[in-house]
Amino acid sequence: MDNALLKKAVFSVNDLPVLPAIYEKIARMTQNPSTTAKDLARVIADDIALTTKLLKLVNSPFYAFPRSISTIPQAIVIIGYSALRNLVLTKSAFDLFPKFYGAENFKYVSFWKHSVGCGVGAKIIAKHCEYHEIEEMFVSGLLHDVGKVVQEQFLRGKFSEAISFACKSNITILEAENDVMGFCHTDTGNLVAEKWNLPPVIVEPITYHHKPRHTDKHRLQVSMVHLANVLSHALQLGSSGQKVLTGIDRFAWEMLGLSLGCIEEIMKKMLNEFDDAVNFIMS
Ligand SMILES: [Fe+2]
Ligand SMILES: [Fe+2]
Fold this sequence. Notes:
The chain is mostly helical. The protein has helices at about 5-10, 20-30, 35-45, 50-60, 70-80, 80-95, 110-130, 135-140, 145-155, 155-170, 175-180, 185-195, 200-210, 220-235, 250-255, 260-280.
């Protein structure tokens, strides 16, 4: 279904959720070379929850910094502007959506755990591939199925029908969504990601994580999120509502060039890091 038609069919009455202004502000400021850490700190300091998350992150084993960091400018200097932007996006997007109550057959807690699992996987795979924007990969993984949340919020009846149909027929949610609604969560995810003005490097994994070969530009990043999604399912880290397991796409596999030994190592690390990441994101 083309985008204009989808928008008209689905969202003519209801409006899509918008990201809080702080994300746009930080995104704009971090692209401007004359912005200083102090300028950014002033904006962050107005948001107590964000300040707490940022300090928690820089003091976590993830950065393994030798001494404790207690001020926001210090924290920003340590993690860098790009990581800060992605942290603000992680928090802003996560805060927008429900955590508990959804359709009878869609459990938000399990869904977010699956998403965190995918974020953790994408970050670990990025390290293995020597791709340095690891926070960008984490947020891409975390948001890869955001279309499902939007559907659950705006089209609960039809989406719930698609989940039941997928379970009954032993097919993927994506196939069931296409059968029941004529479009799927990657179409819806693309709409919301575009509306939020997210950079293409995050929009494309949301749009193509089930068909990496159709990606326009960011094939490596899409392939990493694709693999992280498959592994998050295989390790049963939460659940996105789907019962059937899907394999690794050949295009993504060739793109990443990882060995089977690497995959085993990545899965072990995912299991080790999963609980901490769930605590960090969901608390
Ligand atoms: Fe998906
Ligand atoms: Fe998924």
